[in-house]
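Exercise 7. Predict the joint structure of the components listed below.
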Amino acid sequence: MESPQLHIEPSKSTNDQLLEVKGLKTYFHIGKGKIAKAVDDVSFAIKKGETVALVGESGSGKSITSLSIMRLIPSPPGEIVEGSISLEGRDLLSLSEDDMTKVRGNEIGMIFQEPMTSLDPVFTIGNQIVESLMKHQKLKKKEAYEKAVDLLKIVGFARAEKIIKEYPHQLSGGMRQRVMIAIAMSNNPKLLIADEPTTALDVTVQAQILNLMIDMKEQFGSSILLITHDMGVVAETADRVLVMYGGQIVEEAPVRDLFLKTKHPYTTALLRTIPNIDVDLKRLESIPGNVPPAHLFPKGCRFAARCTHAMAKCLEEIPRLLEIENNHKVRCHLYASEGGAVE
Amino acid sequence: MSEREKILEIKHLKTYFPIKGTLFKGKAGLVKAVDDISFDVFKGETLGIVGESGSGKSTLGRTILRLTEPTDGEIIFEGNHLEHLGNRQLQNHRQHMQMVFQDPFASLNPRMRVEQLVGEPIAVQKILSKAERTKKVESLIEKVGLPKEALAKFPHEFSGGQRQRIGIARALSMNPKFIIADEPVSALDVSVQSQVLNLMLDLQEEFNLTYLFISHDLSVVKHISDRVGVMYLGRIVEIGPKHDIYNNPLHPYTQALLSAIPVVNFEKKREKIELSGEPPSPSDPPTGCAFHTRCPKAFDRCKVERPELIHIEIGQQVACHLYSQEDNKKFSNAESKVLELTKLN
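Solution:
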């Protein structure tokens, strides 16, 4: 293993993959010997400058996947039991806790759904940005303060000098999320992980925040892992999409292909359940039943019990994630070469 | 406009909350959560109310049921004024008006079994015997698509969607005519959300229910509503038939709101109207039209005079000075705005 490089110069690596996750399994020991397989054999990669959306319903494992990348899984009860996560070829899982702390914030920035809980209520906005800059970029306090003002201006605060002295509770949800973006981008991260960044916000503010994220990405050349359940947001912002169900990726495709050439029965059903502002429907389709809890996954395909195409094989055997068209992968026996013809 | 029977009339409804003065700021103010709202709800229809957080849509719903006391105005349900009724008289009317809440995790008592939860409103009204009550509860649980075994369970044993079904069964237990649903599907996953929306549509048909459906989600509101009202800072800025509102929004706020929704559409890129800033605080609303601080089409009059809801031909009603051209002449820069508008249409 090469020694970790912890500066923020752009890497000269020829490989254009920024992040590679291979065979990741994150399990939770939930007592009485039961194991919740929250993330179960997840592999994907993110290229430099790419926006990848990770979609799924609650309990699908999308947030645990992002927390695993940051190594923020509470342990116990959680544990990364298998797999590798590498950032520009460097194995994150074998870094010391100190080195990992430097990766977080420096190379990987993070934005969460509820900015109120991720900002410290007893410190001013300025303190929190200055702290991050001093810690990660080794700036002097005065330099850090000046940079903090600049950052706040970049994320759209006209009166940054005033905002910097305020406390989180004095700001609205959208303003707090801007501050979170300023903090996340303050160290020019290579990867920005945004976990439901606009879910708690109003639509008009959501549009502002998404635009800001895309501007930031272009300005800083970062990649984005966007975790969301909103298919409209996915269609408008992502380059590629990963669909998760039951702790596994069930479909992976470039954004247009995912919506226009949907393969997996779950993705198909999911897209049909969403009311579309452009389409009038008398009734929405719905998926019968519920997502199985992570400690009670069935033996075979995890969607089989709710799938209208389920065959005997689906109850017996977990399908593998196979690339069936250019960059389009699907985990479904309907598309397996042997047996199980389509419909 | 229409010959349909009105089930609810709201006239000049106001709900103000006092802000307590603090130690250092002696001056107390008012939050005008609902500020002079009037509209009708017709029998059997679904009126959707959309607005962003702080627009007053939840307070409006609560005030109609008098869970929050109105400051002024009239609430007329089936011809009866509710705004001044005492508790006992109110109870008689309230059984016809029920509420379904957003958070099915918080609105069900965790110590009660489903049978008690659904049967409680019936027990309070003391109209059915115990045996009749049990039978009624069983049929309600079946109607909302839950198995009979559910009756003996506690709320925590159910998923979010199932809990919302229990909430709906509870609301239905009084054979209501009118249901106010405040963000009933916002806490649910999309696949479950559609199940609950479909259930609400089925029940509406079966029991001839009228809904006031409050939500921030414009796609959901479009799906379920017949008419839609758009709220901004305590007022209705536009209201009318769903297709007029969605296909031909008149108010600049409605236009911006609709354009901001992220959509799955790779054929035509929607033009987004980006609003600057955030909704102002309801405790300190701007003068004139409350939207003028963010409105891309605002002109002088908007800063000083509050627009009233006016009818535009047969479609929707809108509260915007752009549409009362006669009065605009005395404002210097109004003419160009009106021209701009005619070009747009």
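Discussion. Residues 203-220 of chain A form the longest helix (18 residues).
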